Amino acid sequence: MSEPLLLQHSEKNLLRTIVVGAGEAGVALARDLRRVSSFGLEPVGFLDDDPAKRGRRYGGRRVLGTLADLEEVLEHSRADVVVVAIPSMPPNEVRQLGRRAAALGATVLHLPPFLSALQRQIAGTDMRELQVGPLIGRPEMHVVSRHAREAIAGKRVLVTGAGGSIGSELCRQVYGFGPEQLIMLDHDESNLHRTQLELWGEALLDTENTVVADIRDSERLYQLFRDYRPQIVFHAAALKHLPVLERHPCEGVKSNVRGTQNLVEAAVAHDVERFVLISTDKAANPTSVLGATKRLAELVLESQQPATTVLTAVRFGNVLGSRGSLLHVVRDQLASGGPVTITHPDVSRFFMTIEEAVGLVLEAARMSHGSATYVLDMGEPVRIVDLVHNFAGLLNVRDVDVKYTGLRPGEKLTEELFGAGEEATPTDHPRISMTVAPPPPAGFRAGLRELYDAAAHNRPDEVSRHLRRLVPEYSPTPGLVSAGAPYPDGF
């Protein structure tokens, strides 16, 4: 590149952003992003392949180079986000751009192609999906650092639950870091098909990258670890809907606890370097089967004493944008004209975006040197009724009919990030804390065997007793549920 980079000072908490395309759409988009700070993005320059635009300024922001200069521009500008403002750009080129940006720790957002039909006029309302700040009460954080690439590049990486919302985003980011091999495991071939299509632009499901397997099947997992020899494992597969597991606790044990132990034992036996478990804030002083089984999964990691494998857990808040999450349900309820169901006027939750969640996982893989649990600073809990009204405002829905259904069994009014006996310890990342949880109780392994036997024979009352014994801080709550409220946690 011949043009020097003129670095602009970003407003506090805004993510430095490169806009791809200095045409009408890109210039209008950059203007709107600067005008509406709630988007959380601060344009610092453009990329455009038109040589006549090199070095020209649009709205005070310079064209810094062509798409071929992406890596150099990201390094010099310290940008965190790349927004593609060329609506006609083919999807495979967008994916390629995304992989290149991800390799440097940046995120790519794509202006949807249908906007090109709107007289090439870009208005702030067309970027509503970026406005997470008004919903979660804080700006979205760019969590993953460029150093995370060093932990992934050239390694064989296994992702379980690869077809889910978190798992598929993990696959996208990991793939961008240049692993030697990405192994995507899921028990649902339809989910794998969708993830492979997003990554490669085709999905024949006939490559070694996609693996259909059930984490409950220990022998199958040993075979896979023996054949693929993964060096890093990200364990995202789980049953995670709270009311479902309250009704079917045996299934929660089979997947969330026994499945995790199967994976950990296979990983340790085959000298995996790093194993990262995705847990939940509901594991801190749990009141639900979901929280108790996830806390047990954390304890399974604690109970291992591997010679070389580093075992790490990360705790998530509620992830906005994941399948079945709050925004999807509220959007559908508003669209149908019916009331929005919320369990309680004061119920609140910690919220994070998928990008923040995956960033936390990748940073944990980079930072961890021993058994620990990592937690992202997600600010203060957000009342769900406030989030619903803010979201409705973004959709231009003025009158929202809210129906309160009552807290259901296992639900808390407010979640916690750290449980009894846990203390937050700073890390080298300013927004991530870690804790070393208390060790498993005496007789833990024998208790697990009894729990697994009860679950295998589908005895829910016995499973509940074993959960309370193995997780002493587990205190089930009866809830105040109204009839017929099959909604995700908190709403």
TrEMBL record:
| Family classification | Belongs to the polysaccharide synthase family.
Boundaries of each Polysaccharide biosynthesis protein CapD-like domain copy? 157-434
Name recorded for this polypeptide: FlaA1/EpsC-like NDP-sugar epimerase
Q: What InterPro entries is this protein classified in?
A: NAD(P)-bd_dom_sf, Polysac_CapD-like, Polysaccharide_Synthase-Rel
Q: CDD domains attached here?
A: UDP_invert_4-6DH_SDR_e (cd05237)
One Pfam family this sequence matches? CoA_binding_3
